[in-house]
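Q: For a teaching session next week I want to show students how multiple molecules come together into a single three-dimensional assembly. I've collected the sequence lines for a complex. Could you give me the predicted structure tokens for the whole thing so I can convert them for display?
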Amino acid sequence: MKFFQLEPKTHANYLGVKGWAYGGRYGIERYLYTLQRVTGLGVLLYLPMHLIVTSQKLNQAGWEQVMGLVARGLLPFGEFLVFVGGVFHAFNGIRLLLTHFGFLMAQPARPIYPFTVAALKQRWAVYLVFVMTTVVVGYGAWEFLIVAHH
Amino acid sequence: MAADIKQLEKKYVGKEVEFRLLRFAPDKDRAPYFQSFRIKLSQGMTVLDALMRIKETQDPTLSYRKSCRMGICGSCAMQVNGFPKLTCQTQVTELNTDKPIEVRPLANFPILRDLVPDLRNFLKAHESIKPYVIREDAEELDHPTGEFYQSPKELEKYLQFAYCIKCGACLAACPTNATDHEFLGPQALAAAYRYVADSRDQGLEQRLEAVDGPNGIFRCHYAGACSEACPKGVDPSLGIQLLKREILKYRVGAAHKKPAPLAVTPKGLKRREGIPLPPEKTVGQ
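A: Of course. Below is the structure for the complete assembly, covering every listed component.
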């Protein structure tokens, strides 16, 4: 006997990229997920531009002319944003690497109401990422935006 | 908390509340749309109760899934005001809002009709991770001669993940599932860990094909939303990270798991008086 199955008509209901941005009432880790991706993409986009600019075989005058171009307007601030993104990406990446291999995780336990989640037990690592990022970015802001212009 | 519920009941019970329900009839609608219904709240009314009231009194064509109505079967998970919840466990008063209550089918699943999601791919993913104990001594599994040893400590390693009711709330919360439709998903991955962590199991290698593929476990970047959405406290994101560690150990050749041996029936012991006989053995007769 031959069986056949009817293929029901459905309507797609995926949240798409909106699902990254809309954290809703979830914890901070869900926002960090998105921020990690955005900063990763930012650093990735910056890298080829940086390589193209710095790999030009120029004499001193040419080099200074190019450096003068990239020091105009909002470009230094854009560069600073890439730096901020890179610092956050690095520290949060270390947290994620450790998490991925179970080092910052709690041990499984019987679920007893009200339930708790392991993510809450490593919240200190999230705060540490923020503190480390703030310290390095603060120093970077001094170097990028103040020392470099005097 | 009890006082809060009393206050909320005082505030909302007996009042009319608007429900905005997503409707979609595949044979006549091109796209889903919202339809509003108003009902009077009664004490202890859950969102599922409200849906049933609407179906009984206002629109018998409204479709949704339900079965046990007590948080066991996992059929009635839906998006309630944007968050995946078991509607049978969500009281309308606890939502504590004067705005219309929006109920949609679970996100990241295709819609079959109204509030009914298509769970076929979800169940296929669960099936793909081989959700059963795998052992090299297959003969013992097919024709058991006894039980396997397992200490309470070994049980604790996987028990939490065995509470999964496959409601799909974790996939609706997962941002990776939002864009990667082929991603295995938190439910299947946590279920894989449930078996890998089981002291009786030897199936990690057999599960790797499904678990460690291009749309597998390393697409998870620990947003933790699945654990927050889980109505049973299963904490899938914990299971997924622990499974990653097991896979890493296996890949570097550091996984040394001895499967639980068969329990031996003690011999030569005398039963104390007054102790009732154990039940009949179910295996190895």
